[in-house]
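Below: protein 1.
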Amino acid sequence: MKIAVATDDRKNIASHFGRASGFIIYTAHNGQILTEEFRPNLFTGHTLGAEKHGSNHHSHAPILAALRDCTAVISHGMGRRLYNDLAEAGIEAVITEITNCEQAASLYLKGELVNHPELGCDHRHK
């Protein structure tokens, strides 16, 4: 099983999934983290400058393809459309208040990470 955690500093969970500088990919087996790798975020319109702030017409296909080997993704926030697109692709999205990447992944593996989808963003910023 692989779990992707959005991060800007490879230690703390990023506040917005699509704007994160990258993703720590934890590989786990029998509830234990075995390895981790870092994938720079070269996939989202936010980081590539492909859309204006607040636009929700960009495609999530690149990020879905980049994380297709993951069972779940963890972040402090993400747009509602991405949250739904991940679910549709069979990837569980978890929005958490936990700040430490490894701690959140470990809690997820134990079934103890609380999901807060209400903390997601609808991109209607003022």
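Below: protein 2.
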Amino acid sequence: MKLRVLWVGKSRDAWVKEALADYSGRIRRYSALELCEVRDEKGAEAEEMRRRECERLERQIPPTATLVLLDERGEQMDSPELAAFIGKQRDSGVPELAFAIGGAYGFSEEFRRRGRLLALSRMTFTHQMVRVFLLEQIYRAFTILNGEPYHH
């Protein structure tokens, strides 16, 4: 199963880029991984920004991919539950699992209906941090699935 992680906007901070490179390298030991960054929208009303950003995200997601949207109103899972979810997708023959992180105003309602909603926490984090947290949790999930000591 291939993994795809998409987000809106550039990763600007050096520590974010470094962490993304670190965790993406770790994940690639277990699965093919593609990171996709789409341009954020500027100078429009919030709903129009959401619509345009989601159109850009949609163009990067193959029709056969299972989509998970990072959304504050989504389901919360602990790390073993996320591992079980990823393992179930892998074992059921899902060709690609795509995780999407929206822009400053989130996802359009239409796009939200397209995927499963997942919340990393009830707390609010910057979009830069969410990218790192998500990749770390995906890596953790693979170590759990493989019985490795990273998660204890």
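Residues 143 and 150 are 6 Å apart (CA to CA).
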